[in-house]
Specification:
The complex is a heterodimer of chains A (about 110) and B (about 120). Chain A has about 110 residues and is an all-beta fold. Chain A is about 0% helix and about 60% strand. Chain A is built from no helices and eleven strands. In chain A, the strands form two sheets. In chain A, strands 2, 4, 5, 9, 10 and 11 form a six-stranded mixed beta sheet that branches. Chain B is globular, with a radius of gyration of 14 Å. In chain B, a hairpin with a 2-residue loop joins β5 and β6. Helix content of chain B is about 0%, strand content about 50%. With about 120 residues, chain B is an all-beta fold. Classes of the chains: A mainly beta (about 110), B mainly beta (about 120). At the A-B interface, β4, β5, β9 and β10 of A face β4, β5, β9 and β10 of B.
Chain lengths: ~110, ~120
């Protein structure tokens, strides 16, 4: 079992739909990161959070430390949101080394 | 700030050749990482460093070497290229920043990636 599990692996949505991507982890963490990888490969950081909730535009990230679970929400999805979304955790016991989930491929159709 | 600069963007190697992938960050981050991403797969950690002079193996270190002589630079060396090393390589860095007493985390920053093909 991977230390970081994401679901779903693939997600197809229609433009305008509300999207949720889930991340569960099994290790103690100091922070959780949500990353976005567009076709062509570049990876950018969307959020880093260790508690509660963060919002940036149409993106919302939440984390429940007790349940070891985080969600990434996209409101009013748009085709330009199509990308791979990656959850990563900074592990407490390994000096904040990042451990990645396998990613969720999101496709938003017009 | 330039962030994380990774070179080259593309490279084709013949089996047995060697090369160095360069990675430089200008954010004074302590942590630096090298990952590889095979087609359709997630990121796998090759090596990482928690500061100058310190390196550690990740999940898939075989066939690679690294060094961290300065905070800024973290080159990845392939000594004898093999077809199994065909992949996209990413360098990344994250905080805490060198010399800061507050050890809070920072976001992870990634280079643009190197697409390596070994033939």
């Amino acid at each position: 079992k991977n230390e970081v599990e994401q679901s779903p692996q693939n997600l197809t949505a229609q433009e305008g739909e509300f999207i949720t991507i889930n991340c569960s982890y099994s290790v103690g963490i100091s922070a959780l990161h949500w990353l976005q990888q567009h076709p062509g490969g570049g990876i950018v950081s969307l959020f880093m959070l260790s508690s509660g909730k963060k919002k940036h535009g149409r993106l919302i990230a939440t984390i429940n430390i007790q349940e070891k679970h985080s969600s990434l929400h996209i409101t009013a999805s748009h085709p330009r949101d199509s990308a791979v979304y990656i959850c990563a955790v900074s592990e407490e016991t390994s000096g904040s080394r990042l451990t990645f989930g396998e990613g969720t491929q999101l496709t938003v159709n017009p | 700030n330039a962030g994380v600069t990774q070179t080259p963007k593309f490279r084709i190697l013949k089996i047995g050749q060697s090369m160095t992938l360069q990675c430089t960050q200008d954010m004074n981050h302590n942590y630096m990482y090298w990952y590889r991403q095979d087609p359709g797969m997630g990121l796998k950690l090759i090596y990482y460093s928690v500061g100058a002079g310190i390196t550690d193996k990740g999940e898939v270190p075989n066939g690679y070497n690294v060094s961290r002589s300065t905070t800024e630079d973290f080159p990845l060396r392939l000594e004898l290229a093999a077809p199994s090393q065909t992949s996209v390589y990413f360098c990344a860095s994250s905080g805490p920043t060198q010399g800061v007493l507050d050890i809070s985390e920072t976001e992870a920053f990634f280079g643009q990636g190197t697409r390596l093909t070994v033939v």
